[in-house]
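Hey team,

Filing this mostly as a record. A colleague (T.K.) asked me to run one chain through the structure pipeline before their review meeting, and I want the input and output archived in the tracker in case anyone asks later how it was produced. No errors, nothing strange. Just documentation.

Input sequence:
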Amino acid sequence: MNLTIYSLRRKGRREEVELNDAIPSSLPGPGVNYQRTEIREQVNAALAKLSPEHRAVVVLKELEDLQYHEIAEVLNLSMGTVMSRLFYARKKLQSMLRPIYNQIYQTRPRYLCDRPNRREAV
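Output structure:
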């Protein structure tokens, strides 16, 4: 070990390496944070475009994590009505958010797009 240290001292110069290249970061970059913010804004805008009845059901289910029977109780609706409103609200959200989804997955790096779809594997 002393021989190694002595050898390094004798060389006098050490190779300098940029930290950006040497230590890969697991933190998302500014582009990822920007994209997340943009997606969040578009999802909120799409939610705002829903009718109040549909928005209430989606918010209670997806954001508040309530069960169907709890949503029915809170909104004084039948479970069938809750399920129907949730179905049509999700369908409407899907159509409004499809362009951003397509944009994200068309600009993804090729190695991420080559993964098999989980639904296809089943």
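Quick notes for T.K.: The radius of gyration is 26 Å. The domain at 31-107 is CATH 1.10.10.10 (Arc Repressor Mutant, subunit A).
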